Amino acid sequence: MVKYLPTIGLEIHIELKTKTKMFCGCLNDSEERHPNVNVCPICLAHPGVLPVINQEAVAAVLKLGLALDAKIASVSKFDRKNYFYPDLPKGYQISQYDQPLVEGGYLEIYLAEKNNVNDLPLTKKIRLRRVHLEEDAGRLNHSDDGKNTYVDFNRAGVPLAELVTEPDIASALEARRFAEELRAILRYLAIANADMEKGEMRCEVNISLASEGSRELGTKVEIKNLNSFRAVEQSIEYEIKRQTEILEGGGKIMHETRGWDEPKGVTVSQRSKEEAHDYRYFPEPDLLPLKPSELFPLEALKVAVPELPFAKRLRFMKEFGLKFGEVDSLVWEPETAVYFEQVISELDSFQPASTKHREKRIKLAYNYFNSDLKGLIAAQLTALKDSKMDSHDFAHLIDFVDKNMISSAAAKAVLAEMFVTGVDPEGIIKEKNLFQISDGKDLSAAIEKIIAANPEVAENYKKGKEGVLQFLVGQVMKETNGRANPEVVLEQIKAALKNN
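RE: above sequence
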């Protein structure tokens, strides 16, 4: 049976986080809910108005290009892309065609925990074709009864970066990982929020299938306006299946644009695919070409590029002794990575430790951070930055746990209160009398009481039934309101039973 292999490329549109729109002074506010508020004669295309380039948007695209190891154009220009749609006021879009701001570069994605050669993860570099700058269109809002459509021009003219990959992606998973990694980079650079649910980052997939060993690519199909990572992955999986079934049945793939029907889990045909000549590109006559390096000192922009997610993962692995999958969960959001690193710095200041013990403390911090703290964030529908708990107090709590000064159950309760109130852990522990009892002398009375109250259990232990010890430990914990150190309790019970 012939095996068909996919070739996939992505086109990703990113709304840039600038103060104003691309060619006018209207606010760029994705949170505005009142229609047609952030508009002016320029973004509404009134006769005789002239566009002015937003330098902040240009700088953002250059910064992205430098972060992706791409080539910055010596000369770049804007072009008119002609098409007619109700939410496109001018009847054309100011975009870039043959001289984009950024060309080439790559983005490295993570594929597996290990590459079977060393302890580093298995990765793949996806080459980029270009990143160009353009303006966004408006938004159509359809009435519930489907009889009316309203146009909101608040989004018209918002700066939009379009990133185009080379067809290096070979699976739905690789495409999803690329989109996820790109979003993380955009947030680290602070040039875009890239919230897909709000339409701030939108993906389009170009996919074709060809028989294994073929030197020619198959017929390309485009899937438009995917607004979630899940949609990117599932639409590709469906399209691979759909095209494979057609080819195996002797049919031909149509060169077309398709949409993704989320509820049904299928792609649907929309129209035949446009080519570049259909848009009748020509240079924008109202805007002069740009020389980016004269507008912005590129060395200064390079310095402004922070440590990016992939490099941060590798450094966290090396410095903290965590696995790739563990650090991966820490670095998706820059605020999370910064907070965790501050926690470890504070934790180190509480107690110098050997390398092995330090890694144990870091792993303890990670466990509380990744489970209990994230659980609190999810339960309260909030964000880490909105918590009143600072990194110093979180580290102090971990130090108490590591030193067996409070139990795990107590730590969870203290953390929940810290998260809401911002009170330091020591104050909460003292107020609620939660410090753990680890002195055998302080526990002896409770242990003797429990053994005396359960003679049959004690006798069973002496007969070799060691499992009953956990019952006795539990009773002592209950007697001490959970403050006893269970490890100390276990040893003290064994000693007490041995001597009776």
